[in-house]
Amino acid sequence: MAPTEFATRRRTELFDALVDLFLAEGFAHLTLGDIAARLRCSKSTLYTLAGSKEQLVRAATVHFFRRSTEQVEARVRPITGARQRIVAYLSAVGAELSTASDQFMTDLDAFPPAREIYERNTRIAADRVRDLIDEGVTAGEFRSVHATFAADLTATMMVRIQQGGVRTRTGLDDADAYRELAALLTAGISA
């Protein structure tokens, strides 16, 4: 293995471990020393990833959403049919985000750079849903709908799901809430 290939793999492994730590426990209460100890690395190793704890949290949040997007798209890619693709997409998003602890979501919401990344990724997910709806309309599987409105509705619910509002009001866990959202959305736009 070439040195740069090893360094890239090691960097990815560190980010994966960092993301897993943050998802499980949140990040606001952790110092760089705590993080280094938990990842069994030095603080200087962490500084190769980012220049400060704040930059490390931001970079880890980007890594989480990049990794999750790859997983979601891998689940959707083999599916045919617009309805099934929307259900698969929203279910996969729910599964990926269900690994985030309440503490992580609280910390993310309280830290503007990470919250901005979350909000940007929610907009990206809404755009992806809009594209899937457009595919279904073109294929005749869905009635002609205002796809941007349907995507915006989806994004609004995604935010409520992630902020815990849906769980509080309905008792549904995130994965079940995403399945219900997919069912309502696809039933509402079916041809």
Automatic annotation (TrEMBL):
Residues 8-68 form the HTH tetR-type domain. Residues 31-50 bind DNA. Pfam families: TetR_N (PF00440). The keyword Iron does not apply. InterPro entries: Homeodomain-like_sf, HTH-type_TetR-like_transc_reg, HTH_TetR, Tet_transcr_reg_TetR-rel_C_sf. Coiled coil: none annotated. SUPFAM superfamilies: Homeodomain-like, Tetracyclin repressor-like, C-terminal domain. One of its GO terms (molecular function) is transcription cis-regulatory region binding. Keywords: DNA-binding, Transcription, Transcription regulation. Signal peptide: none annotated. The keyword tRNA processing does not apply. This is HTH tetR-type domain-containing protein. It comes from Nocardia macrotermitis.
